[in-house]
Model the fold of this input.
Amino acid sequence: MAEVILRDIKKVYPHSETKRTGLFKKKKVTEQHRVSHLKITEEGVVAVDNFNLEIKDQEFIVLVGPSGCGKSTTLRMIAGLEDISGGELIIDGNVMNDVPPKERDIAMVFQNYALYPHMTVRENMAFSLKIKGLPKEEIEKKVEEAAEILDITQYLDRKPKALSGGQRQRVAIGRAIVRNPKVFLMDEPLSNLDAKLRNQMRAEIIKLRSRINTTFIYVTHDQTEAMTLGDRIVIMKDGEVQQIGTPQEVFDHPANLFVAGFIGMPQMNMFDAELVRDGDKYCVKLEDFTVELSKEKTERMLAKDVQSQPVTLGVRPEHVELAKKGVDATVDVSEMMGSEVHLHVNVEGKDAIIIVPTLDLESSDFKMGDKVTFNFGGNVAHIFSREDEKNLEW
Amino acid sequence: MKREVQRKRMLSVAFALISIFYLFPVFVVLMNSFKSNGSINTETFALPNESSFMGLQNYIKGMTFGNYPFFKSVFFSFFITVVSSALILLCCSMAAWYIARVGDKACNTVYYLCVFSMVVPFQMVMFTLSRTADKLALDTPWTIPVVYLGFGAGLAIFMFVGFVKSIPLEIEEAAAIDGCGPIRTFFMVVLPMLKPTLISVGVLEIMWVWNDYLLPYLVLDRNQYMTIPIHIQYLKGSYGTVDMGATMALILLSIVPVIIFYLICQKHIIKGVAAGAVKG
Done:
């Protein structure tokens, strides 16, 4: 249980063949860094830049973003597995920049479990407590308790290789919880599991979180995990924070085009449109269809004195509906999903998706080349600047 | 199906023949160790018969030959082998871990030097080496393991580095978070995971040091210290006379510990070699 503060955290890998990581803290710079869009300065490749975040005690924070965005690097800096190039890391009121991992009172769950293969599950879970020099009885008690929470009591005397992926991940979580750490770090813990098991384990983590009151920092590239698990989500791209907010906030008010596209499944539809200001009113014009923006959106834009301009209009597929009047489109593909149909349509050369609930349809039989018309409300339109791709409301 | 069975049979026959081919010299040594010198020279490949069978006399003669006690040679051989192999395994696994994980220019240079040392024949360096060993007082059984460490390091580091690279770094990071420093991480986490390679390298080094003749012959003071191969060589008398029976008996005795060691570790050796094959 602890508050974690990251102040202007920066990570730069110098222009040399090696970067520091692990126990000896050295590893070759991977090709990934070279091909991604990370900032390159005189100092080196900037993997994380200007990262500011205050994590409250017992909060569940999820760092999310595409591969190479710096989320794992940030987590590893918190864990002490990576040197911090700049800024300040404070855990429970103490600056931890140069404190070794073992003295930070944190626990970490790795993507590939990182269980000690030569030890049994019991030994794996007891390892950190043994190092701490706790009495045998206490270790045994803590291990039994954690095993019970995670339902792995029957596997305690097995070696990791005799366990399935899901069981191994539970052991990895168990190894972390026996320590009762101040901060619980998880680096893509579910990405090695199959879809069914991932859903199951996700629910387990939610349950676990309610049982052990500690601060969680969770890294994932899966936006579903981020939305379902996090109290707040930090969306990252190319080493920079794009937006921090609750799942609802980032879904409803994406700060920029990247966040809008990253959060939400299927992805938000983007169109080239025209924002028209008429006194105290704003309209957005897409082809021949014009929609007036809602009162709240108008107020926010007025406050920023946004003028008429060409914009990128974002509308989520679930907020688009088929109508008699609106934007004309041609059906490319129709995907029957059971309770809804995902229509992939073409609007003036741009692809878009419309989610149509099957209940609203007389026939869900859409063929390639069918003409459809759709529209949307002014309260669900997201307006992004074409220049800097930022949301014009915020 | 029939073809498959036939193929398997052919393979079995071929491997049986190869096994016989490999075992035959050992069998000849075993057979001759019970025969008299005369019959060894005249009927080398014949089984012992009533007139040629000597019982354990060759063994007794070999062990009591000369002024130097055979058991002392056994002790020195045993001591040098155990200490040298242990030293090679410990130091080289540590060095390989560091080389594999740090991987900077200095480490790579050391690594390639070690690999290069494997292709340098002993005969090329033996003169300078024996002089240096003399000067550094490495000419006793208590210090010769240092020389063996130098010579064994090439192969050992090469094999260990390959294996360490296949161990996920996250395991060591997990150990760091669990409270281990580098030394604890090595002994409690890395070393146990190296077991298959430790056994493979151990077998190779033990067999090499145990059977090595030239290095101890050049380095050790032979009046004071002898290993088994040197002791056997002393059975060769003046004017080229060789007590073949006793030589055979001692050769056989020197093979026995290696065979016992192999039989005990057989399961792990096969596992180690297989692991190396998959992960290497």
